[in-house]
Structures are given as C-alpha cells and as structure tokens.
Amino acid sequence: MTIHWPLLLKVDSDKQLMLLESQEEWLAERDHLEAESLTLIDSQGICYHCQDGDLRPSEEQIALSQIVLWVSDYACQNGHFCSAKIGADSLAQLFEMVRYLEDS
C-alpha cells in the first residue's frame, strides 16, 4: 500500500501532534517514540500503526471530528486561545493548521 505523505502523528497519551512530510522524517523520529502508542494518518485518511519499525495499514477509521479535537487540543497546548473555534472540512485543512502551529 502506498503511503500518501504527509502523515499526522499522534501519540495516544499526549496532546502533541507532528506532521511528518516524508519517509525520511518518519525514519528520523520513529526510534524516539513508543510504537504501541502511535497513531498515524496519511493525507488520504488511511490510518497506520508502527510494527517492528515499519508502518502497517490499520483497519481503524478516525473521524474527521476526532482529528479536529486533536488539533484543537494541540493548538490550546501551544497557547492559541481561539482553539475552540477550530473547524475544518478536510484533512488537508487540518494538516495545514498543524503545519502552522508547528511553525509558530
């Protein structure tokens, strides 16, 4: 299965999000993270989990509304007080929000 970059990385026990733009970025980050606690979503909405250092497609489907909540929590964590007003119609919009939050 082809991974459609970028990937949104979510650690289960944390509000932190990370946007990984390429496989190289994934390879640089994966050894610093607990594989069992990761959820990754590609730009087409396909979920992946890390198994033995590799990304494997998952049967899991995460609703856009859940990802909006993740981004809202992440924005709040980063001091953006208008996070309650976050709304998005697509993953692309949410990925852009995360990119903006990472850069600010």
Structure overview:
The protein is built from three helices and five strands, in the order ββαβββαα. It is of the alpha+beta class and 104 residues long. The protein has a five-stranded antiparallel β-sheet with strand order 2-1-3-4-5. The longest helix has 14 residues. The mean pLDDT is 89.
Produce the secondary structure layout.
Elements: E1 7-11, E2 17-20, H1 23-30, E3 38-42, E4 47-51, E5 54-57, H2 64-77, H3 91-103
Antiparallel strand pairs: 1-2, 1-3, 3-4, 4-5
Large-scale geometry = globular
What does the largest sheet look like? 5 strands, antiparallel
Distance linking N and C termini:
33 Å
Strand order of the largest sheet: 2-1-3-4-5
What proportion strand? 15-25%
Please provide the count of β strands.
5
Compressed to H and E, one letter per element, the order equals EEHEEEHH
Gyration radius (Cα, Å) is 13 Å
The share of residues in helices is 25-40%
Can you count the helices?
A: 3
Structural class: alpha+beta
As residue ranges, the low-confidence spans are: none
Chain-averaged pLDDT = 89
